Amino acid sequence: MTVAARATPLRAWHLAQGARMVEFADWELPLHYGSQLAEHAAVREAAGLFDVSHMRPLDVSGPQARDFLRYALANDVARLDGQDGKALYTVMVQEDGGILDDLIVTRRTAREYRLVLNAARAESDTVHLRCLARRWAGSQRAAPEIQERPDLGILACQGPMAARQLAAVLDFPELLQRKPFSTLERDQLFLSRTGYTGEDGFEIIAPGDRLLGLADALVAAGVKPAGLAARDSLRLEAGLNLYGQDMTVADSPARSNLDWTVDLRDPEREFLGRSALAAERAQGARQALRGLILKDGIARAGCAVSSREGLPLGQVTSGLFAPSLRRGIALARLTSDTPLGATVFVSLRGREHVALVVQPPFWRRGRPCHDVEERIREHDT
């Protein structure tokens, strides 16, 4: 029997806004509201609103919460010490260094942390963390409390005007003073200056019954509803990985352009996967995630990438037409000795398409990244 996709509290609202709904990670979500390109442009130029309630908050608390998360996560939550409301991007890996998920962890107090998990990994992540907590605690330590929060939903208000519009709607001017990767909590709202678009903005975690009023107020203030299609083109332009494509349990952080999320500085911190990741860092990863700019054509996940001489280099993990750059871009896992600036070939439907290798991101905060801009000029000439 087919299991029905789960619905967020805003399903009826999406339909009323004219959304085309699709299934994604077992959730029914809006693909677009009529025009992916218009929604993409709204986020780049002003502000867009995404329902990301398929992402799952998970609260970890107790006197041992900090020490447990130092063991469970590859980045070190000790970097948040003394900074209530500060957030950290990290990966969670298994013993061999393969990525189980990427996530954001926020320190709420010295003994309370909030994780936000990817939808496709939320259930398995929660089981993993609970099993890990029991194993870690043993007889000498108390296991932290790990609480799922299905009562909460998440909206993302993103774009250069997003913070100003959200602050006006909430009558909360203090939001404008928050720095990236910091949060404020007020009136059951958890407001985090984070996002998945390469633009400024906030992610708002709130009780499910608050989402409708927030969405209506933001749209009335001029924020444009946006769906999964725009979210994908925005995140890829920003060089942000998608779990299940650009990183999987078969890939380490170093193979996924995420080695910077692995903190090995404290030799006393034994976290899960440390030995494997330290060994790979010492030896050097055999593959790396790079950006590709295509002269023509649109690469898709799985497309083979080869050198000028026809030697196999790797394959595309994500690819699409980039509205901001007006050409095809992609992320590809290539041999680590493939140099930036190299000309390579992407196989699309039996034809070889020229591409240039760049270091992602392609676009951040209103303009192409410098290296990308330079490579585009090379293509055009």
From TrEMBL:
Residues bound to substrate: 203
Protein name: aminomethyltransferase
Record-annotated Aminomethyltransferase C-terminal domain positions: 289-362
Highest taxon, organism lineage: Bacteria
Classification lineage: Bacteria, Pseudomonadati, Pseudomonadota, Acidithiobacillia, Acidithiobacillales
InterPro entries: GcvT (IPR006223), GcvT/YgfZ/DmdA (IPR028896), GcvT/YgfZ_C (IPR029043), GcvT_C (IPR013977), GCVT_N (IPR006222), TrmE/GcvT-like (IPR027266)
Keywords linked to the UniProt accession: Aminotransferase, Transferase
Any GO MF annotation of the entry: transaminase activity
Catalytic reaction annotation: N(6)-[(R)-S(8)-aminomethyldihydrolipoyl]-L-lysyl-[protein] + (6S)-5,6,7,8-tetrahydrofolate = N(6)-[(R)-dihydrolipoyl]-L-lysyl-[protein] + (6R)-5,10-methylene-5,6,7,8-tetrahydrofolate + NH4(+)
